[in-house]
Fold:
Amino acid sequence: MTKGLFITFEGADGCGKTTQIELLDKYLREKGQQTLLTREPGAKGLGVKLREILLNYDGEVSPQCESFLFLADRAQHVDCIIKPALKEGKVVLCDRHTDSTVAYQGYGRGLDLSRINMLNDIATSGLKPDLTIVFDIDVETSMQRVGKEKDRMESSGVEFFNKVREGYLEIAEKEPNRVKVINSSDTIENIHKKVVELIEKL
Ligand SMILES: Nc1ncnc2c1ncn2[C@@H]1O[C@H](COP(=O)(O)OP(=O)(O)O)[C@@H](O)[C@H]1O
Ligand SMILES: [Mg+2]
Structure:
């Protein structure tokens, strides 16, 4: 069984995941916690190569293929990086994980949700986050934050991102114990305080 804590950060591009995960990592380290700050896709090693394809490949990518690439990265990440860190008792902070596939490929691209859940289960061998924080923000603001330099996923358009946002909110409704939503149109400092409150409750 796992000894550490597994916390995932979710939400559309530009919602502030990376900003907040770095602040929380610093906060926990200063409190003497051992942490692992990691991300999907592409934490390290093979994952970095998969990330390069997923975010920068400029030819046609079928939704199914896209899902399998994300899932391949996830399986490698869980087995080789996340599980060993949890065994060592670390707090694992992960920037995107299973809910991204549900929100983006399921709600966003329209793939069957029950199949995605099943595939996620296979990729993670059933490992579930202890806590997932969804940073919720309107699409216009998040797109402004991302700016002009968009990668392949970020270039998917407003309609797609509205579906992704709705997807995240539905996930949170379905699993209220695991998934907490933070309104991310607030300041970076206020959002950080809310994140810390959620972590302290664990
Ligand atoms: N609460 C906030 N208010 C204003 N700008 C923010 C806020 N949080 C993050 N940003 C800025 O928005 C951009 C995207 O944030 P980032 O943390 O990279 O989002 P994500 O990792 O979810 O894509 C960055 O330039 C960041 O500094
Ligand atoms: Mg980020």
